[in-house]
């Protein structure tokens, strides 16, 4: 069996605070910043009186477990193995980031982030009333002795979605791909994980095509979505389904809440700008349906759900992009994060985001000219 998909690392900066080994110390208190505009003063001009409290997590970087249920695939030339080059993580601004293809992905992989991903998984389940997908899959049951049903989970994170669908469909073979080996050691027997980068050229053989390819919250991870969907379609069986589960990296309101939330407005605007300059725009959820259609998928469906925004994503999405692109200091990032979180907690503000579930059926591999 060949390896999972992957893309050569671009030379994106890893940030001025990046270093291998122990993470840097966090500042003990914020400065007197009353509006987002005050952050532009720079560190030398910040006032001396505390205004916003910053929450600090102690011991978050300790005791990381590198064990995972990874397999070395026969014939693989690119799939990563569990080596020091993969687990020698990068630390930036008090957060831990992946080592393999360092700098390609702007969200951390530390324990705080893993907890956020697992909690977010349950939120996605609530939105779908307990379902793991919206595509009309025809997964064989245990009594079916037909051909292998293959599922690929791109950007699998902690592996929780892949493990759940493997448990739900024991006749399926489930493969998860991620840059970080942060999946648990004990997983269902029909579930395997690979360290790889799905932006690279996919090297699966034709007899390894998938019945279902799934991705969740991949915004900000892909530079060329047209190429991405061509590869997805190439490696789906005829009649196989692709599904993307995404949320808009933007905030909306039905009243004037967004206009009354200056920290949030500053945050989403600069987050989107930074991701564009980084080369992988994060606010792209509303474009997936058309991208699938353009790639030749059939019966493309989109399910849209509006939801009050939750503050858990702010601390994960902010540090890398704001320090690498906008040259924020770690303290400036933390002050911005706390200002946004405070507005999200404000019951007078109804700040909304949109979750999207987009699925399409592949009629077969795309023609060479597509």
UniProtKB/TrEMBL annotation:
One of its GO terms (molecular function) is methyltransferase activity. InterPro entries: SAM-dependent_MTases_sf. Keywords: Methyltransferase, Transferase. GO terms for biological process: methylation. The keyword Methyltransferase applies. Residues 1-59 are annotated as: Disordered. SUPFAM superfamilies: S-adenosyl-L-methionine-dependent methyltransferases. PANTHER family: ABC TRANSMEMBRANE TYPE-1 DOMAIN-CONTAINING PROTEIN-RELATED, METHYLTRANSFERASE. Belongs to the methyltransferase superfamily. LaeA methyltransferase family. This is Methyltransferase.
């Amino acid at each position: 069996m060949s390896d999972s998909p992957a893309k050569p690392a671009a030379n994106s900066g890893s940030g001025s605070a990046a270093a291998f080994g122990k993470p840097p110390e966090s500042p003990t208190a914020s400065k007197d910043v009353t509006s987002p505009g005050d952050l532009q003063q720079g560190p030398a001009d910040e006032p001396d009186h505390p205004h916003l409290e910053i929450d600090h997590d102690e011991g978050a970087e300790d005791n990381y477990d590198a064990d995972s249920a990874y397999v070395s695939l026969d014939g693989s030339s690119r799939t990563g193995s569990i080596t020091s080059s993969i687990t020698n993580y990068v630390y930036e601004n008090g957060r831990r980031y992946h080592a393999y293809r360092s700098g390609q992905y702007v969200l951390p992989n530390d324990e705080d982030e893993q907890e956020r991903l697992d909690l977010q998984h349950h939120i996605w389940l609530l939105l779908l009333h307990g379902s793991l997908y919206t595509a009309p899959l025809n997964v064989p049951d245990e009594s079916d002795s037909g051909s292998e049903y293959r599922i690929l989970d791109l950007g699998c994170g902690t592996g929780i979605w892949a493990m759940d669908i493997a448990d739900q469909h024991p006749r399926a073979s489930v493969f998860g791909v991620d840059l970080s080996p942060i999946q648990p050691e004990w997983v269902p027997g029909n579930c395997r994980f690979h360290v790889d980068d799905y932006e690279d050229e996919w090297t699966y053989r034709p007899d390894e095509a998938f019945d279902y390819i799934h991705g969740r919250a991949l915004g900000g991870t892909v530079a060329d979505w047209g190429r991405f969907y061509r590869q997805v379609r190439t490696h789906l069986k005829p009649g196989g389904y692709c599904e993307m589960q995404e949320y808009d990296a933007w905030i909306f309101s039905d009243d004037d809440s967004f206009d009354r939330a200056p920290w949030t407005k500053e945050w989403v605007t600069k987050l989107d700008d930074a991701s564009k300059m980084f080369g992988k725009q994060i606010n792209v959820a509303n474009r997936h349906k058309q991208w699938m259609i353009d790639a030749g998928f059939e019966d493309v469906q989109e399910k849209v759900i509006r939801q009050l925004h939750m503050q858990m994503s702010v601390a994960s999405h902010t540090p890398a992009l704001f320090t690498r692109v906008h040259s924020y200091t770690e303290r400036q990032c933390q002050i911005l994060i706390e200002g946004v979180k405070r507005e999200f907690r404000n019951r007078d503000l109804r700040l909304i985001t949109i979750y999207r579930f987009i699925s399409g059926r592949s009629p077969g591999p795309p023609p060479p000219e597509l």
